[in-house]
Every structure is written in structure tokens, then in C-alpha cells.
Amino acid sequence: MRSPVQPPRWAHWLLTWLHPDNTLEEVEGDLHELYTHWYNSSGKTQATLRYLLNVVSVLPPFVRRRKTNKQQPEYRTTSSLNSIMIRNYLKIAFRNLKRQKISTSINIVGLAIGLATCILIMLYVQDELSYDRYNEKADRIFRVALRLRLNGKDVGGPVLGANAGRDLQQEFPEVLKTTRIRNQGSEFVNYGTTSFKQDNLLAADSAFFEVFSIPFLKGDPKRALTEPNTLVLTEGTARKYFGNQDPIGKVLLFGSDKTPYRITGVVRNVPENSHFRFDMLTSLAGYDEQHIGWTYSMNFYTYVLLPEKYDYKKFEAKISRLAEKQIGGELQQFLQLSPKQFREKGDDFGIFLQPLTSIHLYSPFGGTELRPGGNILYVYVFAAIAVFMLLIACVNFMNLSTATAVRRSREVGIRKVLGSVKAQLQQQFLIESVLLAMVALLVGLLVVGLALPFFNQLTGKTLTISLLINPFVLAGLVAGTVLVGLLAGSYPAFYLSAFKPVAVLKGGGTAGRRSFSLRNGLVVFQFFITISMIIATVTADRQLRYMRAQKVGFDREQVLVIHDTHMLRNNESVFRNQIIQSPQVITGSISGQVPVGNTNLDNTAVMSKENPDKGVMSRFYYVDDAYIPTLGMQVVLGRNFSKSFPTDSFAVILNETAVRALGWQQDPIGRELIGHIDDNGAKTYYRVIGVVSDFHFESLRQKIGPLVMFLGRNSGNILVKTHTDKLPQFLASLKRQWESFSPAAPFSYSFLDDRFAQVYVSEQKIEQVLTLFSSLTIFIACLGLFGLATYTAEQRTKEIGVRKVLGASVGSVVALLSKDFLKLILIALLLATPIAWWGMDQWLNEFAYKVTIDWWIFALAGLLAIGIALLTVSFQSIKAALTDPVKSLRSQ
Amino acid sequence: MRRTYLGEFEEVVLLMVAILDGEGYGVTVSQALEEHTGRTVTFGTVHNTLIRLEEKGFVQSELGGATAERGGRRKRLFRITALGSQALQEIQQLRQNLWQLLPPHTFRLSGI
Description:
Chain A is of the alpha+beta class. Chain A has 28 helices and 23 strands. Chain B is of the alpha+beta class. Chain B has helices spanning 8-20, 26-37, 43-56, 82-101, 106-109, and strands spanning 59-66, 74-80. Chain A: It comes from Chitinophaga rupis. Chain A: Its main location: membrane.
């Protein structure tokens, strides 16, 4: 029944909201009564005002709080977190873990693997993000890169002509320093009687060491590279050439013409996480380019050092104006096109700055970088995998902890009866799960230590565990693990400790289906990840197989490539003629071009005679008459070059793509094209004598482009087609013959099919990484499923017992238990299919020649997931189904 | 002798609780205060004082039955404890003793 007069509702609401709960009822009632009294004596307005005033008087901070436990003031509750209790918790925890060996080890292994993966990936990501940050001025160093769109193709890159750096320093006072780096590739270096093929040669300006922070061990950084023909060694290289001797002032002889270089300094080895690497750094001083400018001979990586806290975008805008003038002028001279006309054609040019620290992960110029870069996408993918793995591992840990804890409901009951309070039980469970998590962390760290060499091999990095020694990282790991332990333990702790002892001890149902939907969601999530990983792995594997099996258009079996034959100088052809006499050799060809991998050759324009304005960007190959037969290429029209036709020096062989690009519908044989225009505009015509079928001369990531083959001398390698089963002897004989010319270079060789496989190393790595991670996810997901199956089987022991008594067969019980999981996996499959399809489609877009994503991959992934899941679940469900019902029902 | 201090307002409220004899709760106490002393105080003051008296052990309380006129909410009824009545009696006794010591001419001088 409601009283006829009601106090204002909002004031009342204020009271209920702010007044302490334990005195709310009586205060509400008192004020209500007073309000009625005032209402009757002084009217509504007065009553409302006084009510409000009095409400305020009982709100915090004016109100005094009633203490709840004043009933037993003389009884002091002792904290259950004292040292005796903790010792007891630990003792019980150890006993429990020891008693349930299998579930304990499953739990530890699962979490340990999750943690280990996460730590490994963390190391990897940290390394990727640390690139070039060792430089003290890292945030002030920028690289000047060229944006150039020519004939609709992006041909820009991180390199500029020789003068860009100098011009920038002269024009803009804010450029504190500039330095250029030129990639010198590899060269034969002689010291005394020893000769090495020296890789990782760079050349740089003397300001190099003022821009980049690479400390000197010997020599003067200010003067080290100021003179021509001087060089700086790294520590490692110095040891390789000179042992413990002092290298300063010593002279190394470079190349076949033995150019002397004087050593002026020794620096520390370039850090691994640097976007360039050198073993020797030669001086650029006195280096003359024939054409100077910004876009001629673009061989120079140009870096500028800006003042502190300087907005580089502003500087970029400033130098863009200079670049417009400079590059525009060069284009005018080069192409007879004004910048405006050039842009109207749909082409474009300009320069931009790349912050040093973003070069490794964000630079778009893959092949032209000083070292192969990383990819921010992979960093994200890896980080996501790490997070997922950890999440899945934690979820499993939680599920398994819960599942094992449920077995202990009787223990909880007894403890409660004996006087244990809720808090003690909670602490018991939390301490157990934190203990388990810490053990898992230790095991995880051990796994990281063991797996690191393999992981390094896989990722091509040199990660060390030393990063983990950092106290902050360690503290973070421990804190994270404790958190995982607390979270995982919280569910059993709060759930089990809330059991009513009577209910538990009576043997009543403890089956809490309360959180079942949450756990179902977690299973779906796990299998979603698992299925996506399986799909990704299978697709990557198929793509890789496809590329390996792809008809490349030439025969790469039994082809031996002898390297650096130009070091034989004039004896190169003598050597070739000598070795093709051998009965084990079919043919041999001298050529610099090996149609595998990035050749870094420029595209050059050729025009058909009929249509001289339309240039077709083509690759040029200079080959001899043995090239096509050695590589087993198909001549589809016309003929190969031949010594019997002296006019062949003005003949070309095209590939099919080039024929199409030049627009020759009918027989192209005998037609002419413009292959060369000299500085005076005089054109050289070449006659087409043959067409070879298209072959892949780079990787399958690119489409086959137009290719023009000229007859010409192009030394560098000798390709030898052999047929032999006595390879070691054959190679030994080749080596003897090579050494008879006493060349400056050692004999070295490779097989074409090996080199072909090398091209796909990065794809292979991705596949390996995917396989690894998907097996790990499957493994962890199975652990989770196993735990869950154990849990449900345990929960339904009685049900199964009753069913069996009533005549259910083992099969039907197994089906009953497995059905629930199957549904979840099907949902996961439905979710994973579109997302995995989209992801793989994105990845495959990188390849010009790719496999299609077929439906059967998804079916396979689904079947695989279901199969694995059934196997895992059946272990538990069959066990449950085979249990004698007498056992499970006797306690009733 | 350590004695629990009893403030003037506390003393009056305690007396009211004693007078009301088991019927004392927030409303009756504040109305009685207003009626007998003419002091208008906010409800919060009375509420806080009652809680404080209870903490000091001078009164004890229990929740009484619900009545319709307060929207069905229960009252917290206060009753004086032995300690409370002893404290009141001690104060009374003390005052008595002090009055005895008062020289008889004091009030006469002040004109009463």
C-alpha cells in the first residue's frame, strides 16, 4: 500500500543513490515519515524544501557510516594470507599437481608452448622494429628516393645520380651532412698470396661516419675516407685478412687489374639490424661519373642529416622544388619532353624522403635495396599470431584448470565443513594456478632457449636470448605470467569456493552449465584460428609446389654454372672450348645472364622499324650461339644464332612476348627493329632471325616481359650442360683445368636448379613458418579440446551411467559426447572460410603466376580439423562410454 | 577513571531515547527534540548522533516492523543500554554534587 503523500522522486533518487546501503532503509523510512508530517503541517513547498535539506544532511560526506561488524568487536579475524597458510597452500598445491600428473603436464606443456611462441615472436618483432635505431641520430637521418613513372611503369628507387647529395647540401643550409653509398657488389681482393672473393663491398663519402654511428677501433673517422683509393675494414674482415696484425696502412689489391687500396681504418662490425652491411667500405673520393646529375647513373643511395626536431615533411616540400627543376631539365634533355608533356602522358616524377628507421619495414623498393628488407605486414601477422597463440594457450589453461578443479569439489566440501572460509579456498586455487603458470614460464623459457637456433635458421636472423635478460622484460614476463595464472585460476577459485558443502558432499550435481556458452565460444575461436592456419599452410604449400613445378621454359636439370669466368680474361673462351671437349659435356655457353632470380638488369626500349615512336621496354640478353641449346630453350620460329651466318651480329632472337608487344601479327622473321640509338640519333637496325618460346627469366612473382637476345660477348659465367653420373670427378677435372690458367679467383660453381630453388627461399620460409605455427596451434587447440572433453565427460558421468543401464551402446554414447564438439567445429569452419579465403587471395596477388584457391582446400581443412578433434575427444568419450555404470552410479 | 565523553547534544539525544522508552527512532527523536527544546536540527545530525551513541555503546538498536505510512520500510528503534543510563545518572549525579557546592548568594547577586 502506498502512502498518499510521496516525497519528490528526484530527491529520493539522490538519497538511494548516495546514501550508504546498510542504513538506507531506515533513513528512507524516517525521511518519508517526516515529509508526510511537514506536508500536513506546512504544505507541499515547505515540505519539499525541508525534505531536500534533510536528504543532503544524510549524504556523504555529512553522514556517518554505520559499521557492520560491530556485533563482535572483541573477535579479531586473522588474515588467511600469513606465512603458515601460504606454506600450507604450496604444500597442498604440490601434492595436488603431483597426484594429477597427466593433466598437470598437459596444462604446463600447453601454456609453455604458448608462452615460448609468444616470446620467440616477440624477439622477432622487436628485432624487426629495431632496425637502424642503433644510430645515435637515427631520427634525423633521411634517405632521398626517386619517384619515377615511365611508360606507365614505376621505375623509381632509393638511388639517385652522383650529384643529388652535393646539390642538396649546397642549396639548403638545413642539410647538416650528406653522404652517399654506392653498392660495389663483390670483388676479388688480393693480399700477398691470398685471394678472396669479397662480398658486401660498399663505397661511401667521408661524411659517412658523421651520419651513421659505427664506432672506429683504429684510425681517424674524420680523415678515413677523404682520399681516393682508401678503405675502411670491419673488425671481422680485418681478422680474416690480417689475423692479429695491424691493418692500418696496408694495401689490398682489387679485381683483375689489381687496383691498390690503402687501409685507413678499422670499425666495429655493422650491426645485424642495419639496412646496409659492409665488410669493406671504400672511399668515393675522386670517383668520377661520366654523366653527372640526378637521374644519370643512378647508383647512389643518398642520405641527409637534418637538424634536431626539424619537420622533414617541410624539407621534403622544399627539395621537391629543386628536384622539379633538376630532374625536369634532365628529362627534357633525355626524352625531349617538358615536365608538363611528360606528366600529360600519364607519367610522373619527383623525390621524397624516407626516414632511416622506416627503410627496413616500409620501403617499397624491394630488389634495389642494399639488403633485402622486411615487411611490416609480416610483423603484424606475426604479432597477431603471437597474441592468438597466447590467448588460446591461456584459454586452455583456464579450461584445463577448471576441469581438474571440478574433481576436487569434494575436497572443497570437506574443507568448508572443517571451517575453511571462502577466501582461503580462493587463495588455495589461485596459488596453485599461479604456481603452474610459473612452472610453465620456466619450461617456456627453456623451450625458447632450445628453439632459438632453429628459429634463427628459419627467419634468417641472429636473435639471442640476451634481450630477455633485460630486467624490465623479465619483470614484464613474470607479471604477465602471474596475471595469466590469476585469471586462469579465478574461475575455479570463485566457482568452486562458492559451492554449498552440503550439496557437494551429498554428491549432488555440480554441473554448472552457466559458463558453457562462453567455453563453446572459446572452442569456436580456437578452431577458427586452427582452420585458418591450415588453409593458409595448404595454400602456401600449393603455391610453392606450383612454382617449383612450373614450366619455366628452359631446362634447368644438369646445368652447371661456373662463376666468375671473366676473371680468366682472354682465356675465358679457351677454357670453354677446352671443357666442351670433355665427353661428359654436351654444350657450354659463356654468358653473364643466368635466367634465374633478379638480374638487376635495366629494361631498354626497342622500336619496330615500322613504328619507331612506340618503344617497348625489353630485357637485353647478350648470348653466344650455344646459349639456347645449353638451356634447352625452344626455338618456335626461325633459327638460332649460328657461326655460319656472319650477318648474325646484327640479328636478334625475340621471345613470344616481345613479338606480341612489338605488334607483329604475322611472321616476324626477317622484320627489323631499332635496337640502339647513339647520342647523335643514329639508329642501328637488327633483323629478327628467330623466336624462342617464353621462359621465366626472373621469379614467378613477375610476369614474363619482352626479351631481346643479341649475339655478343658477355662474359661472367660459363653454363655447362652435362650428362654424367661421376659428378665429383668431373668437377675435380674442371677445377684442375681452371687452375691451370692461374686465375685471380678461386674455382666456384653452382647448379642451375639449386639457384632456381634459391629464388623461392622467402616463400619457402613463409611456408615453413606457417607449417610450424599451424602445427603448434593445432596442438594447443587439441590440448584445449582434450581438457574440455575431460571436463564434459566428467560432468556427465552419471548421465552416461544411467544411459548405459537403460541400454545405450558404447557407440551411441561416444556419438553423444562428440556431437556437441562437431557443431562447434562446423561453426568455426563457416567463420574461417571467408576470412582465410580473403587473406590468401591478398597474399597470392603478389604473384603473377598463381594457383587458384579451390573449395577442396576448405573441405580438407575442415575434415582435418574435425578428424583431429574427434580423435582428441574420442579418447575421453570412449573412456567414459566404457566405464562400468556400477562405478559411476554406486554412490547414489 | 576513564570515562567516555558525552557531548551536550549527545546527552540530550540520549535522554530523548531514554524518555521515548523503546519507541525512539529518527523521527520521534527529532520531533521530541523540537517539541521539548525548541531546537530545529537537520535529520542528518540526529542520525549521526544516534550512530555515534551506538558505537559508544550507550544505545542499542534493532530493526522494527514495517509500517505503511513510511512506504513499507522498517524503523531502526533505539533503546538505552545499561551503560547509557549509568552515564546519564553519573552526569546527573555530578551536576547534583556541583549544585550542592554552589554558594547560596551567587544567584542572588545576579538578580534572580
